[in-house]
Amino acid sequence: MKKKEYILHYDMVFGNVLSLIILVLMVIITFVIINLNDSFVFSNLNYDTFIWDFILFYILMFGWMILHEIIHAIAYRLNGAKKDSIVFGVALEKGVFYCKCRDYISKKCVMISLIAPFLVIGVITYVIGFLINSLFLISLSIINICGASCDLMMFVFFLKQKNDIEFKELGFSSPFCLRTSDNLENKKFIGIKDIHLVKDINETIEPPEKKITISKFSWIILTILAVMMLLILLLNIFL
């Protein structure tokens, strides 16, 4: 059967609600584990250096988000995606750091890429955090697990699709395109708010992109945050 192309849009409201639910569950799970484990102590928590710890955590949090996207890219490359098809970006006005694959890839490739950051710097590092008594690592892992809500949502979506399905991303990683022999019109999926059958091939063609794109709004926000962090440091040093 001949494949058709579709453009789909994420339901970001559902994704944000799912992220909040995951956060609440992870906080509860963490609280229970800590209370059941008498040997666990907050070895990384030092009230005398709270400001420095806060700044360090803040920097590590952004690093963790970037690492999340790098892991997506590594999984893409290891499973057949072309190097030139992978681009990165920051669009804080949309609340995202993203790794985008501009060319069609297989179902296996996208599913491994979707789940990899959740497992590697979410589940695995969460467990390691308890093994080494690291509050930093546990907290970073929880943030990553919550941030992977849309990845998990899409992983479940792809589980329900035919094996011949192909995937690529548009825009700031949303919307995205699917090429499949299945008829997706009039179908409903959790986390997907719109499915559009492509009738003009130009709908899925985008101009060339930089390897790394940072929106103007993101530059402004990142600059403001950097200045704020510098002021906090100076106040902590001189007051």
Overview of the molecule:
The chain has 239 residues and is α+β, with helices and mostly antiparallel strands. It has one domain. The protein has six helices and eight strands, in the order βααβββαααββββα. It has a five-stranded antiparallel beta sheet with strand order 4-5-6-1-7. A three-stranded mixed beta sheet has the order 3-2-8. The chain is globular and about 70 Å long. The N and C termini lie far apart (72 Å).
Short description:
With 239 residues, this protein is α+β, with helices and mostly antiparallel strands. 53% of the residues lie in helices and 16% in strands.
Gross morphology is globular
SSE-based structural type: alpha+beta
Low-confidence stretches: none
Number of helices: 6
